Amino acid sequence: MLSTANRPTIGYSACAVAPRTAVFELGYQNQTTGSPQTGSVTSQVPQAFTRIGVAPRFEVDVIGPNYVATRAYDAVTPIARTAGVTDSGVGAKYELAASKRWIVGIDGLYTPPTGSTFLTAGNATITGNLDVAYALSEATGLGTTIAVASTGGFAPDGTHARYGVTTPSFVATTRPAPNTQLYAEYVYVSKIAAVEGGRAFADAGVQQLLGTNFELDVEYGHSFIASPALGFQYVGAGLVLQIP
pTM for the full model? Predict the structure, then answer.
Protein backbone atom coordinates (compact mmCIF):
# COMPACT_ATOMS: atom_id res chain seq x y z
CA MET A 1 0.00 0.00 0.00
CA LEU A 2 2.91 2.38 0.69
CA SER A 3 4.07 1.92 -2.90
CA THR A 4 0.56 2.28 -4.36
CA ALA A 5 -0.46 5.55 -2.66
CA ASN A 6 -0.07 8.74 -4.69
CA ARG A 7 -0.06 11.11 -1.71
CA PRO A 8 1.61 12.89 -0.13
CA THR A 9 4.14 13.38 -2.94
CA ILE A 10 3.47 15.67 -5.90
CA GLY A 11 4.47 12.88 -8.28
CA TYR A 12 2.21 9.87 -8.74
CA SER A 13 2.83 6.23 -7.94
CA ALA A 14 3.61 4.02 -10.93
CA CYS A 15 1.38 1.30 -9.44
CA ALA A 16 -2.29 0.96 -10.33
CA VAL A 17 -4.88 -0.06 -7.73
CA ALA A 18 -5.69 -3.78 -7.68
CA PRO A 19 -8.94 -4.93 -9.36
CA ARG A 20 -12.12 -4.71 -7.24
CA THR A 21 -10.32 -2.37 -4.82
CA ALA A 22 -11.09 1.26 -3.96
CA VAL A 23 -8.50 3.65 -2.50
CA PHE A 24 -9.52 6.97 -0.94
CA GLU A 25 -6.78 9.58 -0.56
CA LEU A 26 -7.59 12.64 1.62
CA GLY A 27 -5.53 15.40 3.16
CA TYR A 28 -5.14 18.91 4.55
CA GLN A 29 -2.47 21.43 3.55
CA ASN A 30 -1.59 24.88 4.89
CA GLN A 31 0.72 27.07 2.78
CA THR A 32 2.29 30.45 3.57
CA THR A 33 3.43 32.55 0.61
CA GLY A 34 5.54 35.72 0.84
CA SER A 35 7.30 37.38 3.77
CA PRO A 36 6.12 37.84 7.37
CA GLN A 37 5.14 41.43 6.43
CA THR A 38 3.27 40.77 3.16
CA GLY A 39 1.83 37.55 1.81
CA SER A 40 -0.99 35.05 2.12
CA VAL A 41 -1.97 31.87 3.92
CA THR A 42 -3.84 29.24 1.92
CA SER A 43 -5.53 26.16 3.36
CA GLN A 44 -7.05 23.35 1.33
CA VAL A 45 -9.10 20.31 2.24
CA PRO A 46 -9.86 17.45 1.61
CA GLN A 47 -7.50 17.07 -1.42
CA ALA A 48 -9.78 14.21 -2.46
CA PHE A 49 -8.50 11.63 -4.94
CA THR A 50 -10.50 8.40 -5.31
CA ARG A 51 -9.03 5.44 -7.22
CA ILE A 52 -10.92 2.32 -8.27
CA GLY A 53 -9.27 -0.78 -9.74
CA VAL A 54 -11.44 -2.04 -12.61
CA ALA A 55 -9.07 -4.52 -14.32
CA PRO A 56 -5.56 -5.90 -13.84
CA ARG A 57 -3.11 -2.95 -13.88
CA PHE A 58 -5.91 -0.47 -14.72
CA GLU A 59 -7.76 2.02 -12.51
CA VAL A 60 -10.20 4.91 -12.93
CA ASP A 61 -9.96 8.05 -10.79
CA VAL A 62 -12.24 10.75 -9.43
CA ILE A 63 -10.53 14.08 -8.64
CA GLY A 64 -11.92 16.49 -6.03
CA PRO A 65 -13.83 18.39 -4.94
CA ASN A 66 -11.27 20.48 -3.06
CA TYR A 67 -12.09 23.50 -0.88
CA VAL A 68 -9.50 26.31 -0.77
CA ALA A 69 -9.48 29.30 1.60
CA THR A 70 -6.93 32.13 1.29
CA ARG A 71 -6.15 34.94 3.71
CA ALA A 72 -4.00 37.78 2.33
CA TYR A 73 -2.16 40.10 4.72
CA ASP A 74 0.17 43.11 4.77
CA ALA A 75 1.04 46.02 7.03
CA VAL A 76 -1.32 48.54 5.37
CA THR A 77 -4.56 47.06 4.01
CA PRO A 78 -7.13 45.04 6.00
CA ILE A 79 -6.99 41.28 5.80
CA ALA A 80 -8.72 39.95 2.66
CA ARG A 81 -10.27 36.49 2.64
CA THR A 82 -11.49 34.37 -0.27
CA ALA A 83 -12.81 30.83 -0.37
CA GLY A 84 -14.11 28.44 -3.00
CA VAL A 85 -13.62 25.11 -4.74
CA THR A 86 -11.15 24.04 -7.40
CA ASP A 87 -11.99 22.19 -10.60
CA SER A 88 -13.00 18.53 -10.22
CA GLY A 89 -12.58 15.80 -12.82
CA VAL A 90 -11.78 12.23 -13.74
CA GLY A 91 -8.74 10.22 -14.74
CA ALA A 92 -7.29 6.80 -15.38
CA LYS A 93 -3.99 4.95 -14.88
CA TYR A 94 -2.50 2.01 -16.72
CA GLU A 95 0.44 0.13 -15.23
CA LEU A 96 2.73 -1.58 -17.72
CA ALA A 97 3.95 -5.09 -16.97
CA ALA A 98 6.56 -4.81 -14.21
CA SER A 99 10.08 -6.21 -14.23
CA LYS A 100 12.07 -7.22 -11.14
CA ARG A 101 13.12 -3.63 -10.38
CA TRP A 102 11.16 -1.36 -12.75
CA ILE A 103 7.51 -0.26 -12.70
CA VAL A 104 6.11 2.14 -15.31
CA GLY A 105 2.66 3.71 -15.29
CA ILE A 106 0.75 6.15 -17.51
CA ASP A 107 -1.93 8.55 -16.18
CA GLY A 108 -4.49 10.66 -18.02
CA LEU A 109 -6.47 13.34 -16.14
CA TYR A 110 -9.33 15.57 -17.31
CA THR A 111 -10.78 18.42 -15.22
CA PRO A 112 -13.48 20.65 -16.76
CA PRO A 113 -13.95 24.21 -15.42
CA THR A 114 -16.27 23.32 -12.53
CA GLY A 115 -14.62 25.38 -9.78
CA SER A 116 -15.17 28.86 -8.34
CA THR A 117 -14.48 31.78 -10.69
CA PHE A 118 -11.21 32.81 -9.02
CA LEU A 119 -9.91 29.21 -8.73
CA THR A 120 -11.01 27.52 -11.96
CA ALA A 121 -8.69 27.18 -14.94
CA GLY A 122 -11.54 28.59 -17.04
CA ASN A 123 -11.29 25.75 -19.52
CA ALA A 124 -10.71 22.02 -19.43
CA THR A 125 -7.31 20.99 -18.11
CA ILE A 126 -5.82 17.89 -19.75
CA THR A 127 -2.83 16.24 -18.09
CA GLY A 128 -0.65 13.30 -19.08
CA ASN A 129 1.78 11.67 -16.63
CA LEU A 130 4.62 9.24 -17.12
CA ASP A 131 5.37 7.53 -13.79
CA VAL A 132 8.53 5.45 -13.30
CA ALA A 133 9.72 3.63 -10.16
CA TYR A 134 12.99 1.79 -9.65
CA ALA A 135 13.76 -0.45 -6.65
CA LEU A 136 17.32 -0.07 -5.37
CA SER A 137 16.57 -2.69 -2.70
CA GLU A 138 13.57 -4.15 -0.90
CA ALA A 139 13.42 -1.05 1.32
CA THR A 140 14.73 1.79 -0.88
CA GLY A 141 13.56 3.13 -4.21
CA LEU A 142 13.65 6.02 -6.66
CA GLY A 143 10.80 7.44 -8.69
CA THR A 144 9.87 10.17 -11.13
CA THR A 145 6.72 11.61 -12.64
CA ILE A 146 6.90 13.74 -15.77
CA ALA A 147 3.57 15.61 -16.04
CA VAL A 148 2.57 17.64 -19.11
CA ALA A 149 -0.64 19.67 -18.99
CA SER A 150 -2.67 22.10 -21.04
CA THR A 151 -4.49 24.45 -18.66
CA GLY A 152 -5.47 28.09 -18.20
CA GLY A 153 -6.33 30.78 -15.70
CA PHE A 154 -7.88 34.17 -15.10
CA ALA A 155 -5.92 37.37 -14.45
CA PRO A 156 -7.13 39.95 -11.87
CA ASP A 157 -8.62 42.04 -14.72
CA GLY A 158 -10.82 39.11 -15.76
CA THR A 159 -8.95 38.16 -18.93
CA HIS A 160 -8.28 34.50 -19.56
CA ALA A 161 -5.25 32.76 -21.06
CA ARG A 162 -4.51 29.16 -21.91
CA TYR A 163 -0.99 27.84 -21.47
CA GLY A 164 1.05 24.66 -21.15
CA VAL A 165 2.95 23.52 -18.07
CA THR A 166 5.48 20.76 -17.49
CA THR A 167 6.05 19.41 -13.97
CA PRO A 168 8.90 16.94 -13.47
CA SER A 169 9.35 15.48 -9.99
CA PHE A 170 11.96 13.15 -8.53
CA VAL A 171 11.56 11.23 -5.27
CA ALA A 172 13.63 8.90 -3.08
CA THR A 173 11.95 6.62 -0.54
CA THR A 174 13.21 4.31 2.16
CA ARG A 175 11.57 2.14 4.81
CA PRO A 176 13.44 2.10 8.14
CA ALA A 177 10.72 -0.27 9.42
CA PRO A 178 8.26 -2.48 7.52
CA ASN A 179 5.30 -0.12 8.13
CA THR A 180 7.17 3.22 7.99
CA GLN A 181 8.33 5.04 4.86
CA LEU A 182 10.37 8.25 4.59
CA TYR A 183 10.51 10.27 1.38
CA ALA A 184 12.22 13.34 -0.07
CA GLU A 185 11.14 14.92 -3.36
CA TYR A 186 12.26 17.66 -5.76
CA VAL A 187 9.64 19.31 -7.99
CA TYR A 188 9.83 21.92 -10.76
CA VAL A 189 6.71 23.63 -12.17
CA SER A 190 7.50 25.36 -15.49
CA LYS A 191 4.69 27.95 -15.12
CA ILE A 192 2.47 28.73 -12.13
CA ALA A 193 0.23 31.09 -14.15
CA ALA A 194 -0.12 32.39 -17.69
CA VAL A 195 2.01 35.47 -16.97
CA GLU A 196 4.36 33.99 -14.36
CA GLY A 197 7.37 31.73 -14.66
CA GLY A 198 8.40 28.54 -12.96
CA ARG A 199 8.94 27.51 -9.37
CA ALA A 200 11.15 24.81 -7.86
CA PHE A 201 10.57 23.33 -4.44
CA ALA A 202 11.32 20.29 -2.29
CA ASP A 203 9.13 18.36 0.07
CA ALA A 204 9.70 15.56 2.55
CA GLY A 205 7.60 13.52 4.91
CA VAL A 206 6.71 10.32 6.70
CA GLN A 207 4.11 7.67 5.81
CA GLN A 208 2.94 5.27 8.49
CA LEU A 209 0.96 2.14 7.63
CA LEU A 210 -1.55 1.11 10.31
CA GLY A 211 -2.67 -2.42 9.54
CA THR A 212 -2.91 -3.40 5.88
CA ASN A 213 -5.53 -0.92 4.61
CA PHE A 214 -4.92 2.40 6.39
CA GLU A 215 -2.06 4.88 6.08
CA LEU A 216 -1.32 8.23 7.74
CA ASP A 217 1.20 10.79 6.48
CA VAL A 218 2.70 14.19 7.31
CA GLU A 219 4.65 16.46 4.95
CA TYR A 220 6.66 19.69 4.75
CA GLY A 221 7.55 21.65 1.61
CA HIS A 222 9.78 24.66 0.92
CA SER A 223 10.43 26.62 -2.29
CA PHE A 224 13.76 27.56 -3.86
CA ILE A 225 13.47 31.18 -5.04
CA ALA A 226 15.49 34.35 -4.41
CA SER A 227 12.53 36.72 -4.00
CA PRO A 228 10.95 36.52 -0.51
CA ALA A 229 7.66 37.76 -1.97
CA LEU A 230 7.39 34.67 -4.19
CA GLY A 231 8.71 32.06 -1.76
CA PHE A 232 6.44 29.63 0.03
CA GLN A 233 6.40 26.83 2.54
CA TYR A 234 3.70 24.39 3.56
CA VAL A 235 2.78 21.66 5.99
CA GLY A 236 0.19 18.97 5.51
CA ALA A 237 -1.24 15.73 6.77
CA GLY A 238 -3.46 13.08 5.27
CA LEU A 239 -4.62 9.52 5.06
CA VAL A 240 -5.11 6.70 2.60
CA LEU A 241 -7.91 4.19 3.08
CA GLN A 242 -8.09 1.02 1.00
CA ILE A 243 -11.29 -1.04 0.71
CA PRO A 244 -10.75 -4.40 -1.02
Answer: 0.92
